[in-house]
Amino acid sequence: MAEPVPVRCPCCRRDHLFASPVYPCACGAPLAPPLVRAAPPERITHRTWTDDWVTVRCTECGRQDQWPQPELGCPCGTVLRIPVRPVSTPVPAGRSFPAPPAHIPLPRTATVPRPSFRPVTIRTARDAVTAATRYLQWLGFHDVVQPDTRPASGTDLRAQGLIARVDPSTRPATLRDVECLWLSGMSASASTVFFSLAGYENDARSRADGVGVPLFVMDLTGSPQPVNGPADALVSTGA
Predict the structure, then answer these.
(1) Whether 41 and 129 share a structural domain
(2) Which end of the chain is more exposed for a tag (fewer CB within 10 A), N or C?
(3) What is the domain range of residue 74?
(4) For residue 190, is it within any domain?
């Protein structure tokens, strides 16, 4: 397991201990992006797909690959990008490493209470929907489908007694987004769940807490993280 580093949220000043996610290198060795201790995190307010990947070198075989930039979802709703030490150390003399391959390996299973969950690396909006679908199935919602009608704030997923919204945009979900989902659930007598790549505005988070809408933030490894009490409860109990 990677060594955790202290991280302070610049918005709510809450302190966290964050450990870089561990992935399997193509050679089989465990690999974690090296974090820069004491470096201030960057608040994510918008995303670009090319900037959300970092180059990491395997210390066993020397292979270099692109991995998702480590991110932390603070309970206040802020999503933080954790600085990673750039690849700059030269290969030691007398040691030969194979050339890096031109591919991006999939991450290993995320550390969640149900270890059978397998995340989906997110590089496109479609990947985000796929990751949310698998997560809902992992929670116990069966027959998850995507209706033809698409709301303005993202993509809806439906299951028996459930409406879930996936927002893969580069802006935090708004109060209106959360309220529209909640009202849709009320009209259909269904539970609701919200997944966002860019986090949530403060008033959206407060409203979700008040009406019991579980909020999840998805990082690029495809591992949704609960960011409010209703989401924690859903993870604990399942469908």
Answers:
(1) no
(2) N
(3) 5-81
(4) yes
